[in-house]
Amino acid sequence: MGTALVMALVAATATGEALFQRCYACHSLNPAEQGLQGPNLAGDVGRRAAAVKGFDYSPAMRAAGDRGLAWTEAELDRFLTDAQAVVPQTSMFTPPLRDPADRAALIAYLKGAR
Ligand code: HEC
User: How does pLDDT run across 57-67, given as a tens digit for each residue?
Assistant: First the structure.
């Protein structure tokens, strides 16, 4: 692995962590930390939508999970671009992440939290 690639990966990790500050007010990656405005995101990547027990999801998010929506990297990428486009009437309102590199870095960071 070349030095440039290693540096890029280090930068991507740092950026993902920094970008998570946009989510931090409502979401935790610490499985023990429940009771925030948004569901716990530990282990979220690859999991079915609306799977956190005891979290009060919107009817729209529950229906999406029942239909089989799962947070693959591709679906997360779409959700972070435009949450309402993936789950119309979701109760999550956040500014879209328009830069694909930002979304990739954030998803990589989420994947690391299991
Ligand atoms: C203002 C609070 C808030 C912020 C900020 C926020 N979210 Fe959310 N998020 C929510 C809520 C509330 C839900 C549940 C939505 C529903 O039930 O429709 C949710 C749901 C989700 C889900 C679906 C989880 C599941 O269990 O199905 C993902 C993934 C997610 N958010 C990722 C993010 C990421 C990544 C960020 C940062 C870029 C972020 N959210 C920022 C409030 C927030």
Answer: 999 999 999 99
